[in-house]
Specification:
By secondary structure, the protein is an all-alpha fold. The chain is built from 23 helices and no strands. Helix 1 packs parallel to helix 8 and helix 19 packs antiparallel against helix 20. It holds the Pfam family Nodulin-like.
């Protein structure tokens, strides 16, 4: 068991956990939920809002993670009841309870529940996913503190990959005759292309995976080595391979219809790609066993070797390992929060309205579907590339990560302007820039949080800042895009608006907001520039020398 208790095995099982969660699959089962429960569109939208907030409010998971992984608890007699596995267990209970209730209501196993009850369980199911996400991201940062951007990117892209995997599972047909493929047979028995059974799968799949491997997710305090980056890059390469593979299949599906054998082969290849990180972990363990161990007394967090002027000491005391209340009392917290409202909010609004924009501009259904799928892929690349590039700039150019956040938000503003322009193919170019830059925010924000406020309470603080996403989404999707669209559609047939004027003003406003986010991120960069040089970079130099 000791051989399995290391950061490499933890990384592999964290990827598997992230890929198994189905938090953003509401569109698959929403039609059957609407029909079986007798909801109108307004009620369905209300239920979906609770799902969105459940998937973004991870503050409780942060508090629990901090509580069960603190040194005080781990060193006490109750240490066997502490550790990241506790957070995974609580998340699994919520996920199972929420989706099981939804499945029971949709399948008719229980009488039609009142809307408030459905809203509660619709909140509870994706809220469990925030516990999985918190464990995987924060454990990754703690295990690879000097390559935090890369590991957060890997975890975030894995969290997005699960949606593609679930779609591949859900839309595959004709599994008959494959007695050797147990996973495929299990899905065939469970779903049969049935949204009701798909909800049951969401109740079972993430919990089976997480409960099976939860004791392998651990905080490894071993020293970083120069080869860590090499193995993390290998994990990133596999992620890029999966993204490229899904991009290729998305494009091909617009031109040809895959026969059943091709769908089955596609699924098997996907499984092999998901298993392949285990080979990287084994190779890393073999290399680590051959390498001379770094002295256990070496501590990369020894700040005594840093400059010790009174002003520097005050800076260290004020910025390192803040709790949530202390962080919220700092100006840097609110700068980061406002930057995320601008970046995440405008990004989510673009994603949520991509289909509607395509219809307004006369795109064909296949083109719209391709746009949505490609936007998801650009999101993947942004999550992975943002973390990797921020590590590269920090290590090689010694630039603080908020600078990259500012650059990506400015680029996102350009993407919004391109969408507002209305020229032929504008959605393809604009969504590429917005998708890449939006995805990068999800990698940059957690690692910036850990560096500015410390790792000890990172789980709580970054989950609090994540609330910026639904807040921004509501402001820009409902109060700006929705309001302006409805105003432009007055007097048109069926209140549907056609033409670039439907969204032009909205995206010009969001472009301005993105540039505002860029300015806020630049302020954060200059405010933390000295801290990065005094603490982050010197700690990095000391640990990797």
């Amino acid at each position: 068991m000791e051989m399995l208790s290391n950061k490499w095995i933890t990384t592999v099982v964290s990827i598997w956990i992230q890929c198994s969660v189905g938090a953003y699959t509401f569109s698959i089962y929403s039609p059957v939920l609407k029909s079986t429960q007798g909801y109108d569109q307004s009620t369905l939208d209300t239920v979906s809002v609770f799902m969105d907030f459940g998937g973004n409010l991870g503050v409780l998971s942060g508090f629990l993670y901090t509580a069960v992984t603190s040194r005080r608890h781990l060193s006490s007699g109750t240490s066997r009841f502490c550790g990241p596995w506790v957070v995974l267990l609580v998340g699994a209970i919520q996920c199972f309870t929420g989706y099981l209730f939804i499945w029971a209501a949709v399948s008719g196993l229980i009488s039609r529940p009142p809307v408030p009850a459905m809203c509660f369980f619709m909140f509870l199911a994706p809220h469990g996913a925030t516990f999985f996400n918190t464990v995987c991201v924060v454990c990754g940062v703690q295990n690879f503190s000097h390559h935090g951007g890369t590991i957060v990117g890997i975890m975030k892209i894995s969290f997005r990959m699960r949606l593609n995997i679930i779609f591949v599972l859900f839309y595959m047909k004709s599994f008959n005759g494959l007695s050797g493929a147990l996973a495929v047979q299990a899905f065939d028995i469970l779903c049969k292309d049935n949204p009701t059974n798909f909800i049951l799968m969401l109740a079972l799949l993430p919990n089976i995976v997480s409960l099976s491997v939860m004791f392998l997710v651990r905080i490894d305090e071993s020293s970083s080595t120069v080869d860590d980056k090499k193995h993390l890059n290998a994990f990133s390469s596999i992620s890029l391979t999966i993204v490229g593979y899904r991009m290729m299949t998305v494009i091909l599906e617009n031109f040809i219809t895959f026969p059943s054998w091709a769908q089955i082969s596609s699924f098997i290849l996907l499984l092999l790609l998901l298993i392949s990180p285990l080979g990287i972990a084994i190779n890393a363990l073999i290399e680590d066993s051959k390498r001379n161990k770094i002295s256990s007394e070496e501590n990369p967090l020894e700040y005594e070797q840093l400059p010790s002027t009174s002003e520097d000491k005050m800076l260290l005391q004020n910025e390192e390992d803040m709790n949530l209340v202390q962080a919220m009392g700092s100006f840097d917290f609110w700068l980061l929060f406002v930057a995320m409202v601008c970046g995440m909010g405008t990004g989510v609004a673009t994603i949520n309205n991509m289909s509607q924009m395509g219809q307004s501009l006369g795109y064909k259904t296949k083109e719209i579907n391709s746009l949505v799928a490609l936007l998801s892929i650009w999101n993947f690349l942004g999550r992975l590339g943002g973390g990797y590039l921020s590590d590269l700039l920090l290590h090689e150019r010694r630039w603080g990560r908020p600078l990259l956040m500012a650059i990506t938000q400015a680029t996102m503003g350009i993407g919004h302007i391109i969408i507002a322009s209305g020229f032929s193919g504008n959605l393809y170019f604009g969504s590429f820039l917005v998708g890449i830059c939006f995805g990068s925010q999800w990698s940059l924000m957690p690692i910036i949080t850990s560096e500015i406020f410390g790792v000890l309470h990172m789980a709580t603080i970054f989950n609090t800042i994540t609330v910026a996403s639904p807040i921004g989404s509501y402001i820009f999707s409902v109060r700006i895009i929705g309001y302006i669209y409805d105003k432009e559609a007055i007097g048109e047939e069926n209140n549907h608006c056609f033409g670039i004027h439907c969204f032009r003003l909205s995206f010009l406003i969001m472009a301005f907001v993105a540039f505002l986010g860029c300015a806020v991120a630049l302020i954060l960069f200059f405010r933390t520039k000295r801290f990065y040089h005094l603490v982050v970079l010197r700690r990095l130099d000391y640990s990797l020398r």
